[in-house]
Amino acid sequence: MIDPKKLAARFPGDFLFGVATAAFQIEGASKTDGRKPSIWDAFSNMPGRVFNRDNGDIACDHYNRLDADLDLIKDMGVEAYRFSIAWPRIIPEGVGRINELGLDFYDRLVDGCKARGIKTYATLYHWDLPLALMGDGGWTARSTSYAFQRYAKVVMARLGDRLDAVATFNEPWCSVWLSHLYGVHAPGERNMEAALHAMHYTNLAHGLAVEAIRHVTPNVPVGLVLNAHSVVAGSDSGEDKAAAGRAFDFHNGAFFDPVFKGQYPESLVSALGDRMPVIEEGDLAVISQKLDWWGLNYYTPMRVLDEPSEGAEFPATRPAPFVNPEKTDIGWEIFPSAMTDLVTELYARYDLPELYITENGAAYNMEVVDGEVDDQPRLDYYAHHLSAAADLVRDGYPLKGYFAWSLMDNFEWAEGYRMRFGLVHVDYDTQIRTVKKSGKWYRELAALFPSGNHKSA
Ligand code: IFM
Questions:
Q1: Less packed terminus of the chain by CB within 10 Å, N or C?
Q2: To test the ligand 1 pocket, which listed residue (296, 300, 406, 418) has its Cβ within 8 A of the most ligand atoms?
Q3: pLDDT at residue 15 tops 50
Q4: Whole-model pTM?
C-alpha cells in the first residue's frame, strides 16, 4: 500500500486536495422548495433508460442533510469541495421566474463551507437542464445558450462573493455526444445533426457564461471541466493511427479547439460541417475567451481501431481491446500513465491555463461488513493515479489540485445506484454514511495539506 506521507512529499505544500459531487447525483428533494423537473428526472422515470428505473428523487438526501454532509467533508481533511448548482432549483422553467428558495439552499451550502474553512469550487451545469427548455429543443436550440447565460448571471450575483472558483460546464462530451448521439444520457437522442447543434450551442453557452461571470464577479477564477479522452491507436498500422487522429478531433477537438483555438477541427468540419448549425459572426470569439483554469476529469483511456465499413460515420472508429485486463466494476480499463500522456499531449497541442484534476476515481461496489468497507482496489486506483499526478507536477505542468470522485456513493446516471464511486459508502435505505478504507487513506493524505512547504512545482 502506498504510504500517504511518501506520496504527499511528492506534491508542493500548497497543492489543493478536494472531493467532488454533483447536484442531481446527491441532492434528492426533487420536488422541494420550488424545484421543477430536469431532463434527468424525465429520463430516469422512463422505463429502460436507467438501471432498475432508479431516479434522483431521494438520492443521498443531501438537500435535507446538508450540515451533516458538510461536517463529513470537513472530516475528510480536504481543503476544497467541488459541487454543482441545479439550474432547475434556481430558474425552475429555465427562463423566467427566479426561485429564491433554490438560491437560499446554495447560500447555506457556501456559507457552511466557509464556516468550516472549506474552499468552494462550483460548477454551473452538471447535466440537469430544466425540462421546460426541451420545449424549444433543449441544447439543440440557440436560445438555450442565452438562457444559460442569464442563469450564470443570477447565480454569480448571489453566490459569487463566496466562490473560490467557478466552472461553466462539466464534461460537455457527455451532455453532447453521450446524450444526443449515443442516446445513453438524457435526453437520449441518437442523431448526429442534433448532437452537432448541441455541441455548438453548449460551446456558445460556455462562452456567454464566461462573459457574464467576468461582468458580475471579475475576481472569481472561471474555468471549464472537460473529460478529455486519452485516445490511443489499437495498433501501429497507418489506418489505426489515422483513426486515432480522427477520434481525437471528434472527442476532444470538438470542445478544446473552439475554446482554446477559436475554431472547430478541420477534419470534423469537412466531414460533418454541412450538418452543423450556422456559426454566427462573433460566436467563436465569445467561445474562445481566455480562461483562468481548466479541469480534467480522467478515468480510463479510449483505445480505437479504424472502422473500415463503407458509410461509417465520422470519426469511423471501433473500440480496441484493453492493454491492461484489470478493470473497475463499471468495466473501465485501469491505466494511470494514460492520464500523464494525455496532459502532455494536450499542453503540446493547446495553450492551456492552470489545471486541476477535477475528477478521478473508481467504481467498486463493496458493501459494509462489520462497520467497515474494505475497498482496497479503489485505494490502489487512487494511489496510482495520484502518483501519475505527482509525475505531472514534477515535470512542470501547472497542476494545482486534485478532486476525488466522489465524496460519497451516489446516482451514477444510466447505471442508477448500482455503481458506487464514493470514498464514503451510502446505505440508501437508512442514509447512513460509512467512511471506506479508501476514504480513510485519502483523509490521511489530504489532511497533510496545506503543509507550509510551499515549494514551487
Ligand atoms: O458520476 C460521473 C460524474 O457525474 C461525471 N464524471 C464521471 C463520473 C463517473 O461516471
A1: N
A2: 406
A3: yes
A4: 0.98
